[in-house]
Design a protein that fits this description.
mainly alpha, two-stranded antiparallel ribbon, 15 helices, 2 strands, 64% helix, globular
Length: 281
């Protein structure tokens, strides 16, 4: 019997995570996550994100694909590795002087909620007007994703389980967010990461990436764009233009079978798409 993991082909999670805009949504999530001073400090001081930008992005995508589309055993194994890494990271919060662990529940919950909100926002905005994501499906997606937070060690009872709960969470956490020097540096690396000269000179990777990452930045909530000192992007016309841009990008990615230069879907996702197509047939 096929093990469809924690979600399965009939889930909203599979529908959204096989959408070609899930990659840009992941970039948006990284930009949003950078606004949490302690979470950003942990990344800046306890990881090699700058030195291993592409590897880090690839591993993050692989992890999400494994926990989404892999078997339950594969998902639990991947999550156990992540929990083990987090358990070894300890330090002192420079703002409060208090000790922290990378497995602190508040930090894990922030990372989770920023990713869920980003995928929900970007993918739903990028869909054609004739195929909107319903409010029921949005609630289902947030509820389904509770298990993703549990896999990394967050208690189920504290995880938002509906779109309304998710909005309430961000209202509660916003006063604690800030754009630190580390956050600005991380955002710069995400929007314009270093590329090998050969890639720059022989491929369209730079303009493609700048276009995609620019849309990711512009799709952030208006309050987040203002925090990044981008008031010119925090307007209604910009929101409308960004939505149009996301729809155009999605259409282009669908025409190219969901590929952009240098980026391929994982084997887990490929198998998931094939299973979804088989069931639809």
């Amino acid at each position: 019997m096929q093990d469809d993991g924690f979600f399965g082909p009939d889930s909203v999670t599979w529908r959204l995570h096989t959408d070609p805009l899930v990659g840009p949504a992941g970039l948006r999530a990284l930009l949003l996550q950078a606004l949490h001073p302690l979470a950003m400090h942990v990344v800046a001081t306890r990881s090699r994100f700058k030195e291993e930008t592409w590897g880090r992005l690839h591993r993050t995508g692989e992890y999400v694909d494994t926990t989404t589309f892999g078997s339950r055993q594969e998902a639990e194994r991947a999550a156990a590795v992540v929990r083990g890494i987090h358990a070894r990271i300890r330090g002192t919060d420079p703002a409060t002087g208090l000790e922290y662990g990378a497995d602190d529940e508040d930090l894990l919950l922030w990372i989770h909620c920023a990713l869920v909100e980003s995928i929900l926002d970007v993918v739903s905005r990028g869909r054609a007007p004739s195929q909107p994501l319903s409010s029921d499906d949005a609630d289902r997606y947030v509820a389904e994703q509770v298990v993703s937070a549990e896999l990394v060690g967050v208690r189920r009872e504290v995880v938002p389980a509906s779109r309304g709960d998710l909005d309430d969470y961000f209202t509660e956490v916003r006063p604690h967010l800030a754009v630190t020097r580390e956050a600005r540096e991380a955002a710069s690396y995400i929007v314009a990461p270093p590329m090998a000269p050969r890639v720059v000179l022989t491929t369209p990777a730079v303009p493609v990436w700048l276009g995609v990452s620019g849309l990711a930045m512009a799709s952030l909530p208006a309050w987040a764009r203002r925090m990044f000192a981008l008031p010119e992007l925090a307007t209604a016309p910009t929101d409308a233009a960004t939505t149009a841009g996301l729809r155009a990008l999605r259409a282009a990615l669908l025409r190219s079978e969901g590929r952009v230069p240098g980026v391929e879907p994982s084997e887990h996702r490929k198998r998931a798409v094939a299973r979804m197509a088989g069931r639809a047939a």
